[in-house]
Amino acid sequence: MFSLKKRSQFVVVILSMVTFGIYGLIWFASVTNEIEATIQQKTGACRSGGMAILFSILTCGIYNYYWIQKQAERIHQIGNEVGVPVPNNASSWFLLAWFVTPLIPEILLQGEINKIVDALTAQGRI
Q: How far, in Å, CA of 75 to CA of 77, rounded?
């Protein structure tokens, strides 16, 4: 079942800042759940948004870097499964998160999700 949702990247950033990160946590959990519900071949990544937040808290945010890399791989896999080309940006997103800010890869991840949703909508598959 396809459950990825299109969201404005700009709105995600603005709401995250206005709510002092609370919307960012909601987005984090929602995207984790949506990717898990959409992906056909399960890869053993964290399957629950709530667990992803818990892991992030327990590791003082270090889990976020793993999450970014894993979600980049998984969104690439979803693209392959539905026939929408999405590059595997896992390494570059990890480096961006580590050396710049985790916000950039999250914006890019939402952009790739939007690209998949747009392509499937144009094909009449959603």
A: 5
pTM of the entire predicted model: 0.90
d(CA 52, CA 32): 8
What are the structure tokens assigned to 120, written together? 């499937």
Other Cβ atoms less than 10 A from the Cβ of 122: the count is 9
- With a cut of 70, say whether residue 44 has pLDDT above it: no
Cα–Cα nearest to 35, from 69, 65, 74, 8: 74
83-118 tens-digit pLDDT = 999 999 999 989 998 998 888 999 999 999 999 999
CA angle 53, 18, 55 (to 5 degrees): 10
Question: Domain spans of the chain?
Answer: 9-122
Q: For residue range 55-79, list pLDDT tens digits in order.
A: 999 999 899 999 999 999 999 999 9
- CA-to-CA distance for 72 and 94, rounded, in angstroms? 9
Alpha-carbon distance of 17 to 22, in angstroms, equals: 9
Contact in structure between 9 and 107 (CB atoms under 8 Å): yes
